[in-house]
Amino acid sequence: MNIKRIAELAGVSKASVSRVLNNHPSVSPELRAAVETVVRQEGYEPNAVARALARRRTGNIALVIPRPAQFAFGHAFLTEVMRGVGAALEAQSLGLQIITSAGPASLSAIHRDRSCDGIVFAGIWADDPLARHLDDAVVPVVVVGRPSPQLAVPFVTMDDEEGAYAATRHLLARGHRRLALVNGPASMWSVNRRRGFQRALLEAGLAFDRSLALDGEFSSDSGQRLMAKLLARPERPTGVFLASDVMAYGALAAARQTGLSVPGDLAVAGFDNFPFSALTEPPLTTVDAHAFTLGFRAAGLLLAALRGETPVESQITLPMTLVVRSST
After folding, report:
1. Domains in the chain, start-ordered, CATH in brackets?
2. What is the mean pLDDT of residues 120-129?
3. How far is residue 72's CA from residue 50's CA, in Å, rounded to a whole number?
4. DSSP string of 250-266?
């Protein structure tokens, strides 16, 4: 038994069930009665539901990252998301609880112990088993990113495809025709960035050369290793779009080690616009992913849900901004 099944039996939406379980003031008596009847009849996690209906507020929000702590706190994008979530909660005098290495069992423990009033999820990849359990949460949930098009929960994400498209168009406008793509691990982010890269090539009448498209990790070591591999080819690329700034830092190092000048011999564009990207040599052209804003807006959606408000938009896609610097 889960929230989806309760919604089906009660003849209401999953969002309505969630509002009842979280005792939102906007719930009508008829809706509350329908949902609570099904909950009692089906015996849906009675302890967790009882606590949810009693609405014992903890004053804490959980930021759940299903990755090891070393990855979560060492990943510049996720730390910017953390800062955004924390800033929004601090303004409301709420605490932030960060949970790493989270899986379905962790989600069940949060429900059982009622350790927070709501959850922001970040860093969920497309194949993450946790994604299949988000609809079952008994506290309000908001996701940073969009791990699955079928996901019904509120989310705040970035327009990865348009960002990658803009960066690739910029490289093409600089006269480059042999472009490489260095992408990240399997996720909706990576899929969309590849799609934007390919779309720009197609519009320019260029074929997508799969031999110039490599997948790696969002790390400088991965970017350096894959860039070195591309530069060792007999016909090396003259421009490269990397799916993260951190990967681009590694690409700049690989170019230096090969004796190539940037942008004279190789144009390099990244994606994120971390503060350090303005300080690389040369300064990095990149797409501003507005990671801080993603976290801030996600927390804002969650706070609205806790107040019982229905936002005008519950699935938000932020536009990206191309920041042109000397690396291209």
Report:
1. 1-56 (1.10.260.40), 160-290 (3.40.50.2300)
2. 72
3. 33
4. HHHHHHHHHT--TTTT-
Distance of alpha carbon 177 from alpha carbon 278, whole angstroms: 26
What is the tens place of the pLDDT at every residue in 291-322? 999 999 999 999 998 888 877 788 899 999 99
Answer yes or no: is pLDDT of 15 > 80.
no
User: pTM, whole model, 2 decimals?
Assistant: 0.78
Nearby residues of 48 by Cβ (< 8 Å), 6 or more positions away: 111, 112, 114, 138
Q: Name 232's Cβ contacts closer than 8 Å, sequence gap at least 6.
A: none
- 3-state SS of 1-16? CCHHHHHHHHCCCHHH
pLDDT in tens, 240-283: 999 999 999 999 999 999 999 999 999 999 999 999 999 999 99
Q: CA 19 → CA 52, 76, 307, 308, distances in Å? A: 10, 34, 10, 8
Q: Measure the CA dihedral 123/293/150/193, to 10°.
A: -70
Q: How far is CA 201 from CA 100, 157, 205, 207, 223, in A?
A: 38, 24, 6, 7, 22
Residue 274 and residue 325 in contact, taking contact as beta carbons nearer than 8 Å: no
